[in-house]
UniProtKB/TrEMBL annotation:
Pfam families the UniProt entry points to: Ribosom_S30AE_C, Ribosomal_S30AE
Keyword list, A-Z: Cytoplasm, Translation regulation
Originating organism: Roseovarius albus
Compartmental location: Cytoplasm
Gene that specifies this protein: yvyD
SUPFAM superfamilies to which the protein is assigned, alphabetical: Ribosome binding protein Y (YfiA homologue) (SSF69754)
Gene Ontology MF annotations: ribosomal small subunit binding
Name the UniProt record assigns to this protein: Ribosome hibernation promoting factor
Length: 187
């Protein structure tokens, strides 16, 4: 497994990198077959350290966790605990997903935009209906079944996931509803 361990505005020492590789490697090996790479990003927010971990699996799925603590090692350990809980919860499905699928998840390119938020009050009328684009990025849309899409959304901790439905070959959306259930939009 390839590791990319970095810090935003902080120095990451060799001891922390060795700790990350040992702990994360043992957790991912235990629950997922053939992980491809891991990105661990440390940053500082006020008096707390923030650790964000993203692990890409060979099946094309991605799992993600984030934690805060006053000690950098504690932040990483909490992040690992969250990742282990996610992987443990989905271990059977991850292994079943790998057996059913001959090829890794296909990904299609799409544009992703970040729009400027309105700085005015919520009651004020906008000057125009054209939003200001702050950033434009390339994003990937996976080709999944509905069950795989729900699992991917849960593993990534995302509130919504757009995917190409393998069964109907159209774009679909799954999202977490306010009542805690999962919604599925199939146009």
């Amino acid at each position: 497994m390839r590791y990319q361990i970095s810090g935003k505005q902080i120095d990451i020492g060799d001891a922390l990198q060795v700790h990350v590789k040992q702990e994360l490697g043992s957790i991912v090996e235990k629950y997922a077959e053939r992980p491809t790479d891991a990105h661990v990003i440390f940053s500082k927010s006020a008096s707390e350290f923030v650790c964000e971990t993203i692990v890409h699996l060979s099946t094309g799925l991605t799992t993600q966790a984030k934690a805060h603590a006053h000690d950098i090692y504690a932040a990483f350990d909490q992040c690992c605990d969250k990742m282990e809980k996610q992987l443990r919860r989905y271990k059977r499905r991850l292994k079943d997903h790998h057996r059913d699928r001959e090829e890794p998840v296909a990904q299609f390119g799409a544009s992703s935009y970040i729009l400027a938020s309105e700085s005015e009050g919520q009651d004020a009328e906008p000057d125009s209906l054209k939003p200001i684009i702050v950033a434009e990025m390339e994003t990937k849309i996976p080709s999944l079944s509905v069950g795989e899409a729900v699992m991917q959304m849960e593993l990534a901790g995302a509130p919504v996931l757009i995917f190409r439905n393998e069964g109907k070959d159209g774009l679909n959306v799954v999202y977490r509803r306010d009542d805690g259930n999962i919604g599925w939009i199939d146009p």
